[in-house]
């Protein structure tokens, strides 16, 4: 998509040791898949990735452990699939917002950037349980490297959206700061007590982004 979010794709997840592989075979039953992912999310958020047990995930989902392995290969596969689904949902949301803004005649790079950032932050609030999970440092081996790879791609895409010359160090640093502001705000939203507080944070952050973006070029 254009700016704000960029998918590392399922292929990137497969590059991790013991990656999830094909998690969505044509014959996979959707209800089974959802039950396993919902149970995995609950257990991961309650116990952390390291202490999460496959037996508990299977028991909560009502799906045999063997079926869990068949579909996801274990904890890593479940975690990476949750990550991909979170990323894809955020990606679709921000892509739709940018497309609507452009269709409405918006061409200003800062206006587009802030609109996309707002959509991303609203998605972070809507999906805050997943957001809290991925904000923690407890994940499968290699996940930090994958997240850093995606973060670098995110900065590059935002630089293009803001029409910043990536060859200029000052421009790159400013876009990196802007991207970090969005990521930090998304983590804060995970701890918000209610929607009113979340909206206040989103509005405040978008104001900050407008101010900082003014000199991004």
Automatic annotation (TrEMBL):
Signal peptide as annotated in the record: none
Keywords carried by this UniProt record: DNA-binding, Transcription, Transcription regulation
SUPFAM superfamilies assigned to the protein according to its UniProt record, in alphabetical order: Homeodomain-like (SSF46689)
Region called Disordered, residue ranges: 1-29
Keyword Nucleotide-binding: no
Keyword Transcription included in the entry's annotation: yes
Ranges of the DNA-binding region feature: 53-72
Segments forming domain HTH tetR-type: 30-90
Record's compositionally biased regions (Gly residues): 18-27
Protein name: TetR/AcrR family transcriptional regulator
Species: Streptomyces albidocamelliae
Taxonomic path: Bacteria, Bacillati, Actinomycetota, Actinomycetes, Kitasatosporales
